[in-house]
Amino acid sequence: MSPATLAALVANAAMPAYTAYRYVQFALAPGEFGDDYSLSLAALMIAQLPLCLLGGAFAGVSYIDGPGWRRVLVYVVVVAVFGLATGLAKLAWNTEMGPILAWAVAMQLLIIAVAGPQPALARARIDAVTGDAVNLTILTPFVALVLGIAAVALQPAIARRLEWRSVSFEWSDLAWICAAYFALRAWSAAYAFTPGFEARRKGFFQRRWIEALVKPAPKGDP
Hints:
Strand content: under 5%
Helix content: over 70%
Radius of gyration: 20 Å
Oligomer: single chain
Number of strands: 0
């Protein structure tokens, strides 16, 4: 792996890895953080779905050739129309998600404006990381639900097994799931720069069984 590729790998994986670390900090000692901090972490996790949609728009415009202003214009129009049509713009304006989404839009606009047309490999990486993000974002709530039900169901048995220790499950325990989510996102971003990705040209979590779980079969299919 060349130094340039390694630098790109680290740059892309660093932010989700650091975010996972912050969720781990909160999960280990929630009492050391105020309500504002916990609400910010919750907003960040909830914002992942609209961030995935922004990522889809970003991936789409990367295929537009020609001058940079054309890609910028298409991105702005798509994001504005979608945000206004779905009410997402109003939701972002009135909630903690606003700064998160605004930062994402600003960063993507900057990249679109200065990066120029993307070569095939770069486009494949954008598509792969975006696809992985969508799959993980859809799967995470279901994983959290299954683990939550299992934790409640097993709590009496665990408490009996550990007679000397009381067992309780707090809302902050969900931070572990959020930490795992961002850790997997970091791995996805890093994987896009590995030889394995260059051979498959698909994200690490773009697997048939995952696609079958997150994407319903078209009507008429068995």
